[in-house]
């Protein structure tokens, strides 16, 4: 019987107190109540290491690299002590036939018990000749490994949506893996790449609770993809005040103002960047002065220039605008706060926000910009 | 003598998908082909895009060397539009380049290449007290006690005893080509784990200036981050202190762990000096002190050395249509004139697959066999990368490089000629981390001096607006990536990209043969490599890995009748 994470930790000389502290931190990271901590403790004390097969398909390996940046747990601890990483081209010592044997062994001995993590898209054009591994197409390799997997995680925007190679005109017909894996659900962990602690958090959630995390309607773990970057942005106060950077290194940029006008896609991008941060919380793109590219959203390379604002001119939304959006939505709650923010420089945006807050349901910011665009087109 | 053909598919511990097939006579390889088996069409996708956006697309060519394609792309656009960047932007870009080189080289040495030299299972037999004594004799690195190495050894033991070996499963452990004593293997495993934890620290420098790593952010005309010592949410003293602390940590790790390790390990392999290959070396040069347009200011010099002759260095001109050309005779691409070479400005990317239908056993070297083109300089195949940079710099008399090389070779008691080998390639890469960490310190100091002098500009806005651009323009952007010379060639028309071509280091090194049957660097180096056991081609892995390939690869050794001796593959 393989040892549990707890057994390993004890042998490593970690104290019980440190172990419990780790469990509490893990619970906080996963957005769980304190009452869940004992369950994490129990799981890490008793479970053997879950086998993981990691496939690299049509990709650039940024997701593998991101995994190596994990700080909690450390990538080395995850890989060597918490899971059994039985196949990952980038890291495994074995090559060739021996590597294939290791994968086949896991697929057989742990049928329906291994996790499949997939980085990269599947190329469907020309019968798959644009990406072959061992003389086989990506679709072939993926289908074989998905068959006996207990769960399939699409890790990174290549695997969830085809990413850059799937951008127009998509010459290799690169698609997300859900187009090929049809017989079981695919958990989407998008981003180019995703944040290290987002993928480790998703995997550790399963190791800890034995079930997959709750997902958003798009199939992404809620713990990391429920809110937009804009919702939690460190420059958000400047957006609300209407203080915008107009050009890199202008006076506003030197004060850390909002990047909306130079193309920031934070308002339509659902990801944990502004909360979890990158490289153990060191920064994230907006914090370092560059607009968000929107890399966790489908077709983010085909939404116009990265430096074009989401609307040509910063919209000045009114309560009426917001009501127009909401007309077509199922709304829970009352728009009581809608008018409350209608004071001072950030009149419209504050109203927009207040409204969102009270609705308890998301209003896709894109809907908002869409109606502004319609208005503009009509007036032209 | 009977000839055989074997297959390694893919060679693991590399980036991407590459396949190599080779013919073996006895224990000697007589022919080899190298095939890139992935095509994503980024050059096609880049057509008609806004040139200011191009870096984000080009960056996704590679997530391992995550900085260099973005840098080459913005430099290409800046060259085309004649945009000059502020001094701080040049310094910050140099800091990011050196950060990339150091992190990438360390990950390569320990995590991608390490198991070609270090036998993990042998480490179980080590006496930790002796490992401790060895560690203390070569370095003052504090993690060197007997109890520390006992803990590492127990960790491996537990993994082995659990029956779930994970990434260590099924490798060539015990192969006769492993030469290290168990105690040094244990040292190597300990540092494998330490390096894995440390590499995530140095890239925090990328996160400070570019927001994240992998795939930090860039901007044409400068760098995205503004400097203001009297505000927060921008580059201020706290951010600079973070950068400085990561530079200091890196210097300690390189000087006390990586450099002592390479010298210790190389000492056990110093009689195995094969894998030199084509011996033509090229460097575009990089790390400008003033501007990328002034090669004389480069701290990594530019030039070409042919046939290992250090007495002469040739000039390289990336804009000369006769110098750098790409051929497609043996590639799955179509040119109007299939035998002609095209300069990248006039380059074409039209896929035309004529290989076997997957699943397939073998490729046919008489037809197209790779998604990689064959770049040539003055018609000659070139090796690029750390060794090439060292050879060019050495030949040009660069004092720091000469000192690094001479003192390492002196310690190993090896002649200069020993550099032209698999081991030499690995040694050069390790020594280059020392060079780069020195550069990091220098550029950080320069950045502080410049800010102190009152210059905080990081971006040039003059030509941001496309209305300021000429109707037509063309440019080339280049850098020395961890794996070698990288160039992006762009043509801009009416504010949009009209053509985009990237010639990447691995295209040079992994290139298929050309019309004149000249082999690429991988192919030539594999032919140079003997095999102790063709069923377990560890030495081929070692030679291929010494280039640090940026495409997942696969080696086939087939017999001329097409009979497969041994298919070494992983799907």
CATH superfamily of the largest domain in chain A: NADH:ubiquinone oxidoreductase-like, 20kDa subunit
Task: Write the element-wise H/E pattern of chain A from the N-terminal end onward.
Answer: HHHEHHEHEEEEHEHEEHHHHHHH
Q: Percentage of helical residues of chain B?
A: 25-40%
Instruction: Kindly identify the CATH topology of the largest domain in chain A.
Output: Rossmann fold
CATH class of chain B, named Mainly Alpha
The CA-CA distance between the termini of chain B, in Å, is 32 Å
CATH class of the largest domain in chain A: Alpha Beta
* Class per helix and strand makeup of chain A: alpha/beta
Which term fits the overall shape of chain A?
Answer: globular
Distance between the termini of chain A: 71 Å
Radius of gyration of chain B: 24 Å
User: Largest inter-chain interface?
Assistant: A-B, 107 and 114 residues
Taken as a percent bin, the fraction of beta residues of chain B is 5-15%
Quickly count the helices of chain B.
Answer: 15
Largest sheet of chain B: 5 strands, mixed
Poorly predicted tracts of residues of chain B: 552-571
Using brief descriptors, characterize the structure shown.
heterodimer, A: 380 residues, alpha/beta, Cytochrome-c3 Hydrogenase, Chain A, domain 2, 4 domains, two-stranded antiparallel sheet, 15 helices, B: 571 residues, alpha+beta, Cytochrome-c3 Hydrogenase, chain B, five-stranded mixed sheet, three-stranded antiparallel sheet, 15% strand, disordered C terminus
Describe the overall structure.
The complex is a heterodimer of chains A (380) and B (571). With 380 residues, chain A is an alpha/beta fold. Chain A folds into four domains: 1-47, no CATH class; 49-223, 3-Layer(aba) Sandwich (Rossmann fold); 227-310, Cytochrome-c3 Hydrogenase, Chain A, domain 2, CATH 4.10.480.10; 316-380, no CATH class. Chain A has helices at residues 5-11, 16-29, 37-46, 62-68, 75-82, 96-109, 138-147, 157-161, 196-209, 222-225, 236-241, 273-276, 319-327, 347-359, 365-379; strands spanning 50-56, 83-88, 114-119, 122-123, 132-133, 136-137, 149-155, 174-175, 186-189. In chain A, the strands form three sheets. Chain A has a five-stranded parallel beta sheet, with helices on both faces. In chain A, helix 4 (62-68) crosses helix 9. The radius of gyration of chain A is 23 Å and the shape is globular. With 571 residues, chain B is an alpha+beta fold. Chain B has one domain: Cytochrome-c3 Hydrogenase, chain B (Orthogonal Bundle), CATH 1.10.645.10. Chain B is 37% helix and 15% strand. Chain B has helices spanning 42-45, 54-59, 68-81, 87-112, 128-138, 146-161, 182-202, 204-210, 237-269, 386-395, 399-412, 422-452, 505-509, 521-527, 538-546; strands at residues 3-11, 18-25, 28-36, 281-283, 286-288, 298-300, 303-305, 324-327, 374-377, 472-481, 484-493, 496-503, 553-557, 564-569. In chain B, strands 1, 2, 3, 13 and 14 form a five-stranded mixed beta sheet that branches. The radius of gyration of chain B is 24 Å and the shape is globular. The two termini of chain B are 32 Å apart. Mean pLDDT of chain B is 92; it is low at 552-571. The chains are: A alpha/beta (380), B alpha+beta (571). The interface between A and B is large, with 107 and 114 residues.
